[in-house]
Amino acid sequence: MAAQINPSILSADFARLADEAKAVEGADWLHVDVMDNHFVPNLTLGVPVVESLARATDTPLDCHLMIEAPDRWAPQYVEAGAGSVTFHVEAAAAPVRLAREIRAKGARASMALKPATPIEPYEDLLPELDMLLIMTVEPGFGGQAFLDIMLPKIRRTRELISKHGLELWLQVDGGVSASTIERCADAGADVFVAGSAVYGAKDPAEAVRALRTQAEVTTAKASWACDH
């Protein structure tokens, strides 16, 4: 599949979210970071803002829930208009049940792993998911430096996806930029969350196009894509 670029509104101007969404209309998804100041030490936005944003843009919303009790709250984000909802496995009480509920409500189900969480214990859960998110920084704040030590984990995850013959998207989030996206794509990622690399650019839409081109050129030469 082609590389997908999901600009993160965590790096956008929260006072102008509708305009900021329009500024990246060529993006595949709009990444919405939901933080509750409990699971992560930061507070961002919730269901009402997602509802408003869904009405303000035709770009589908990719909601990343960095919150406690996602089993309780995640379905509400589907109802608010999210096309994809990501919960953290570290916070979920029943990840399989939650993934099935998200899918049943009509959204793509995604599971996120913090940097220190290994993928291997969750191999059997992969068929229940539409996307897996490997965090390449500690969740909670934008603008952090990319953690290169996550690249082997991305490769191992891609190998597990291939092993089971799954059509599972592999997303990376944290420090993704023109200087790091090629390493991520070569390791096996195909969905890229970019915050400051997009919204910090003079032309956010052009930044999206440039990042997508970088990722696609790298993917075309990557061993995992050639084997797929």
From TrEMBL:
Which residues are involved in binding a divalent metal cation?
Answer: H31, D33, H64, D173
Q: Which cofactor does it need?
A: Fe(2+); Zn(2+); Mn(2+); a divalent metal cation
Q: Does the keyword Metal-binding apply?
A: yes
Instruction: Copy out the cofactor comment.
Output: Binds 1 divalent metal cation per subunit.
Q: Does the keyword Manganese apply?
A: yes
Q: What does this protein do?
A: Catalyzes the reversible epimerization of D-ribulose 5-phosphate to D-xylulose 5-phosphate.
Q: Which family does it belong to?
A: Belongs to the ribulose-phosphate 3-epimerase family.
Its protein name is Ribulose-phosphate 3-epimerase
Q: Which organism is it from?
A: Streptomyces violarus
Q: Which gene is the coding source of this polypeptide chain? A: rpe
